[in-house]
Amino acid sequence: MEIKGLSQIRAASPFELPPLPYSKAALEPYISEKTLSFHYEKHHQKYVTTANELIKGTPFEKMGLEQVIKETAGKPEFEKLFNNAAQIWNHWFYWNSLDPRGAKKPQGELMQAINNSFGSFHNCMNEFTDAAVAQFGSGYAWLVKDGSAIKIIKTSNAQTPLAKNQTALLAIDVWEHAYYLDYQNRRPDYVKAFIENMANWEFAQTCFEGI
Ligand code: MN3
User: Fold this and answer.
1) Does the model's pTM come out above 0.90?
2) pLDDT at 103 over 80
3) Ligand 1: centre distance to CA 194 (Å)
4) Which domains are present in the chain?
5) Which of 13, 149, 151, 208 ranks highest by number of CB atoms within 10 Å?
């Protein structure tokens, strides 16, 4: 499948806000147009604007986004740039992890790899739910490929599997800005809607094969 925004994510700086893969009302009733508008136009845009300000006149200006993230990860002196650059990438990845046509199921080799690592798709989704609900404060839960294994990880704030040499397959943003207008404090309901109604397994399959 074609991945929306990949060319913006792979382009040299200045960074651009990658396009949403669907309209801002496309995920209703699970994510409202209001939530998606704020999340994309305000939050995601702000990370792009701030990252571009921070790289101006630095050696990072010559690098693509993914390289900037890898070069700044774990370095306290570049923490602000890392946070903003990683959030550009994380949000692009999250938008693509959502499918307005509704969640289906993984197929073929990805399903086989999930079964090998978790015993069943059901176990995998239970572990994903636990990670997303348990992440304390802001962050994400991810399905990743790590070597030949499929794993569930949770990350704080802007942390990203991209900086850990893991291949991201699916992400849920559990910062409150992602769900508070629609679910208030009911994060488990948002996570349930993600798994049952929105998870984009076609995108996960494409990432599994390599992009
Ligand atoms: Mn967010």
Assistant:
1) yes
2) no
3) 14
4) 108-209 (3.55.40.20)
5) 208
